[in-house]
# Entry
Amino acid sequence: MIDCMEPNNRKQRPSWDQYFMEMTQVVAKRSTCLRRKVGALLVKDKRVLATGYNGAPSGLQHCQEVGCLRDQEEVPSGERHELCRGLHAEQNAIIQAALHGISIEGAILYCTHQPCILCTKMIINAGVDKIIFKGGYPDSLALEMIEEAEIELQQFE
# Structure
């Protein structure tokens, strides 16, 4: 019989950052965006406060159903955010927290991608203290504003 407590049989637990980053990948699977699947979590005191993924507002048709205007117009990534039916994952996480009366002041945002300038401005005003992201995003103004707001920014390896 195998003793599960023997050192050779113990599975290593993920760190908290690994744990929450893996969750962002699962959340991103709900995305209805045709270009990029993004997931976000707002976490405080090692507890998930809200999640979000990118997609159209509740009750409206998704890009999977009506097509992608940004693809049709050949809009490069990181430009002309207003030409999209969807909300970003970070926006949806902030909105979910607000809908349910949950303060995210002092929270950590875990995200599959670096936030864009639109999300960055919301993150700053919502009082998020730290952003941990996996993939980059072409938005230098967002990086400048995150630095100016003194929000800790960490790329997850």
Notes: The mean pLDDT is 93. The first strand starts at residue 39 and ends at 44.
